[in-house]
Structure formats: structure tokens, C-alpha cells
Amino acid sequence: MPSNLHKLLITKALLLSILSANAQIGGSSAFNFLEMSPSARVAAQGGQNVSLVDADANLFLSNPATLNAEMHQHLGLNYANYYAGINSTTLSYAHKLDKLNGMIGAGFQYVNYGKMDGYDAGGNTTESVSAADYAFTVGYANTQGPFTFGNALKLAGSRLDTYKSSALLLDLGAVFNHPTRDFNVGLSVRNAGFVMSRYDANSPTPRLPLNVQLGASYKLEHMPLRFSLTAHNLQKLDVVYLDPANTKQLDENGNPIAKKKTVGDKIARHFVVGGEFILTQGFNLRFGYNHLARREMKLENKRGSTGFSWGFMLKVKSLTFSYSRASYSANGGTGYISVVADMNRWFKKKATAPENPAAL
């Protein structure tokens, strides 16, 4: 494998392991940028959510079954500034189709990794190289009673200098909406598909970041709090990684004692907790905790706020602004900004004045 490509792959894998908050899981497959938080709202609630259902068009990128009539003609724009000059931009749009008796959604994700130093096979410095990932998504959802079923087709691409890779992926989802209470249960199977082209034709075909998620959201009846609990990576029961080099404890003979996995830790790493304090119709506070990110990305001597996230929402007329900050390492956090515009108010047809019969 060429020197530049090999080093770029290693660098990118490490970065995506952090940014996707999946750590060892994220580093074991390709196109892991698809697991990055699509919006400030999701990032504020731990980075994973498949059960929120309202007028936020960005939500369908996490679960296509969240497409609903409240999203009709809503446009979402999201931006995140990561480490070392890496940034991502996400667009989303939802539209109601009466003829198809359902909703469609369209999305575009782009991650720019900036420029890196280039080297030849001998390790000599060459021209700088760049890298980027992108994905186009088209989704459809149909509601039948309290259930909504959705699917989304994604074309994902990646560019590392002059090398390119692509994949075709499918998301499947379902949501149960309680008929009388603010209670939703969501199920999503994300990123199932196949690789169409690889960076290097001689390298093994990489795995895709399959993620089976199950979650629930509930608005407490007598409190302004919507609570969400999401289980992720259910396709893999054991997601615990123990660093064999991290053995600080010694036995009576002075030999290092290897850490052991516990059932409680195995279960806890599958869950993300999130919440929204609905203070007014135009202002919310948000928070979240991702236990997998906490356990995998913390430092032994400096844990900080790793795994925790927070944010807020401010709605002004037809625009909804959101900001969040998620901590993926002890050295700092990542900021997310989202704007959702209600295009119905912008392009609403003006009512025509009735004709005056006396003038005819």
C-alpha cells in the first residue's frame, strides 16, 4: 500500500474513532463518519437518538421513520468544528407527498479533514494532501396508525489524496407514537450495505459501520422534561475494549494484574441518556451522557467531562437555532451549531382578495 494512503488511513481512523464517540467500535470499520452526530440537538443528548419525533428535519438522518408531517418544508443546516481544523456540514430537508401518502427526506453530509503533510515511500516530505468524506441520503416514511415505517438510501464517498472509495448503504427504521401521551419508541438499523470501490483494489474489503439502535423518548406529564434513553450497537453484545498496556495494579509477586470485563460495564456501554428541559415553546435546555465515550476516551489521570454534553435551543419566528457542546476527550469539547428554517412561512401563498360582484 502506498505510504501516503497508509498514513492517511491510520490518521483518519483515529480521528473518526474520537469524533463518532464509538472509540474501538468506530475504528474497526470504514465510512465511520456516518456515525457522527448529524445536528446540535442530537449531539447535546449524547450523540445517539432514534425516538425523537417533531418538526426537526435533521432527525431523519438518525432514523428515517422519524419523518413526519410537522417537518413539511423544513430545511436544516448544521455545522461542527472539530479538532485540528476538521469540520463537518450537514443539510437536511423534509417534504410531504400527498400522492405517495408519506414523507420524503433528503440529506447531505460533508466532512473536511483539511490538509496533511505528504510523504513518499522513502519517508521524504512531498506536497500536502487533503481528505474528505461525503454522503447523499434520500428517505421515505409512511404512517399507519400509531406506527411509522421508514427507509433511507445512502451513497457514501471518501477521498484520501488521489484515492477514492464509495459505498451504497440502507437505513431501516420504525417508530411507535403513543396516541394520547408524548411517548415514542424508535428502532433503527443503520448503514447496512456494501462497498462499491476501495482506496486500494488489492486491500481487503472493509466492514461498514452497522449500528442497530433501540430507544424511547417520554415527556413527563407534570414536569417540563423530555427524557430519552437509547441503546446502540445492539448487533454486538460485547463492545468493551481493555487496553492490555493499562495495568497499574500488581499482584503479590509484582506482576501486573489485567483488568477484567464486568457485566454491568458491558451493558452500560450500550446506553446513551439524553434530556430536554422545555422551559418555553421557544427555549429549551439539553443534556446528555454517553457511557461508551466516557469509558473509552477518558484519561486515567484526567477524566474531565468526557462523555457529557449539553446545549440549548432558541426559536425566533420561523427559525430555530441550536447550539451544543460535546466532550469527546479530556482536552476539550466540540461545538455544534444548527439552524432549522420553516420554509412554509417563507413561501406561503398570499390569499387572494375576493372579487367584487358589483364591479362585474
Describe this structure in words.
This protein is 12% helix and 46% strand. The protein is mostly beta strands and 360 residues long. The protein has one domain (26-346): Beta Barrel (Porin), CATH 2.40.160. A 14-stranded antiparallel beta barrel has the order 1-2-3-4-5-6-7-8-9-10-11-12-13-14. Strand 10 and strand 11 form a beta hairpin. The longest helix has 17 residues, at 3-19. The protein starts with a helix and ends in a 14-residue tail after the last helix. Keywords: Signal.
Reconstruct the topology from this structure.
Blueprint: H1 3-19, H2 23-26, H3 40-44, E1 74-81, E2 87-97, E3 102-119, E4 125-144, E5 147-160, E6 163-177, E7 183-197, E8 211-219, E9 225-231, H4 263-268, E10 271-280, E11 283-290, H5 291-297, E12 308-316, E13 319-329, E14 332-342, H6 343-346
Estimated structural class: mainly beta
Biggest sheet character? 14 strands, antiparallel, barrel
- pLDDT < 50 runs, ≥5 residues: none
Level-2 CATH architecture: Beta Barrel
Protein name: Type IX secretion system protein PorQ
Signal peptide: 1-23
Organism: Flexibacter flexilis DSM 6793
Keywords: Signal
